[in-house]
Amino acid sequence: MERIYDHRDSTYGYLRGNRIYCKKNKLMGYVYGNSLYNPNGQLAGYVNDGVVYNCYGYPVGYASQSDYTVYDGSRQHVGHVHSTFTSLVAAAGLFLLLGGIFGGRRRTSSFFW
User: Which spans are transmembrane here (predicted)?
Assistant: First the structure.
């Protein structure tokens, strides 16, 4: 289980296998390869070459390969993962999905929803 942290270093949720859960243990989505899906199996977004895209193919953020940190389109810190898994895709997707569903910081809430 990998914990997901927001920009304030507060626990936002976690990743168990390829499933994403909020901190209240509600299933929020899945990570497969470089793509992120909502609980209904619909594409929510994907990552390509460190750029995070929404389901419509528009770039919405960036992901750092060196420290698993995710930034929004304005290069503002969104969150990070203290992780042993090697998927940058998962780290970026987790924040954008959770930020969109929970509303988090205003700039992340419009990424997917």
Answer: 85-104
Backbone angles phi, psi at 107, to 5 degrees: -70, -20
| 64 inside domain | yes
Which residues 6+ apart lie within 8 Å of 88 measured at CB?
47, 50, 63, 65, 68
Q: Which residues pair with 53 in a beta bridge?
A: 46, 59
Tell me the one-letter amino acid at 32: Y
88 occurs within a structural domain: yes
Residue pLDDT, tens place only, 12-55 = 888 888 888 888 898 888 888 888 888 899 988 888 888 888 88
Query: Hey, is 83 helix, strand or coil?
Result: coil
The number of domains in the chain is 1
CB neighbour burial string for 57-75, b if at least 16 within 10 angstroms, e if fewer: eeebbbbeeeebbbbbbee
Direct distance between the N- and C-terminal alpha carbons of the chain, in angstroms, rounded to an integer = 26
Q: What pTM did the predictor assign?
A: 0.75
